[in-house]
Amino acid sequence: MLTDEYRYKILKLVEAKPEISQRELAKNLGISLGKANFCLKALIEKGLLKATNFRNSHNKLAYMYLLTPSGIEEKSSITLRFLKSKMRDYKLLQAEISQLMQEAKSANAVDKKLDLNSQEAPQF
Question: Which of 11, 39, 51, 110 has the fewest CB atoms within 10 Å of its CB?
């Protein structure tokens, strides 16, 4: 299944560089060439991308990927959903960091007490 994250990243990369190869797309996304091919085909089938043939500088047949009007609309929707998701993650991470800082301060205070007690002369 094609997640919003991959859909967003692919649409963003294709919009920025329509002549991007599947190999380059796979490398940028950190996925296999087969998965990149699958994702592009899925986006083409959904009508979000259009693939057109062109000849690149190596005189090999290649594709140029273009966002369709619905692809542009979907990219905007995905961008908003992706942003909201990342903002939720950010807020949760901020809360976790805050909690860890409190625990560290508390642990540090306990450590300081223990260090002070260990430096005192032993009582008999």
Answer: 110
> What is the three-class DSSP state of 57?
coil
SS3 92: helix
Tens-digit pLDDT profile for the chain (124 aa)?
A: 788 888 999 999 999 999 899 999 999 999 999 999 999 999 999 999 999 876 655 655 678 899 999 999 999 999 999 899 999 999 999 999 999 989 888 887 766 766 655 555 444 4
Domain boundaries, given as residue ranges, for the chain: 4-88
- Which CATH architecture fits 4-88? Orthogonal Bundle (1.10)
